[in-house]
Amino acid sequence: MDIKHLQYFIEVTKLKSFSKAAEHLFITQPTISKMIRNLEDELGVPLFDRTKKTVELTDAGRIIFDQATVIDKAFKDLRFQLDNLLELKKGSIRIGLPPMIGSLYFPDIIGRFHEHYPDISIQLVEYGSKRIEDEIDKGDLDLGVVVLPVNNSVFHSFSFEKENIQLVIPSSHRFASLSSIDLESLKDENFILFNEDFALHNRIISSCAMAGFQPNIISESSQWDFIGKMVSSRLGVALMPESICKDLTSDVSVLNVTSPSIYWELAIIWRKNKYLSYAAKEWLTFTQEQLNKKYRR
Prior knowledge:
The protein has 11 helices and 12 strands. It has about 300 residues and is α/β, with parallel strands linked by helices. Strands 3, 4, 5, 6, 7, 10, 11 and 12 form an 8-stranded mixed sheet that branches. A two-stranded antiparallel sheet has the order 1-2. Helix 1 (about 5-15) crosses helix 4 (about 60-85) and helix 2 packs across helix 3. The protein starts with a helix and ends with a helix.
């Protein structure tokens, strides 16, 4: 048995599919099936119940899976620590960025980082804030950018931006001539929201509840520009961060929201009590310096 046997077993378990695991690992399905068979022969127990339509762990498989994840984590930590010991300015980083945040703040930073560290590869994954938290907690991402608050007992955080959430309405809307509006005045409007992966989804719903109504949500999306186009097409109204509102088309009007006002605070987070690789530490330090310069901290 070697570490690859366990890693292949973990991947099949997570994805509940031999074919999907093979595709994700860039190997053939016969190869991964053979590796799992070899592991079962060596351990002397079946790991998967192959009589069912979906891939399911046996009782023995569940025990092995729990221990395999511990071993895999220890192996990854060992690799990262050896990189640090040898002071190798190379490696890889897995970073989670919400789509609307990544395009606003990070292209220049990532470009400058690559100039300084050309041998460090960066894998960017676009998820909403809640999904990023989960992936960092599980160890599938090293760092990520999210909307605060987060669980401070689980994550370290570095806050770098705080701004208002504004109302976006069609330019022909009856409220378009106003500069600000009470949230309660929107109780009869149709809302277009970011989907449930995004922290703003629940924040907007809870803010509407504070104003005394449940928003009528007619559509959800993960793409801020698409939401803007739906608003300009008079399908509904949206609540979006100030920095994004500045990039919307002239077919919409943007108003400040009061009673209650809504804001978001952005932060980079990483898991407490988890080893960060040299590459991840360098990216974190570099990014903090760049953001501090930008916001003159």
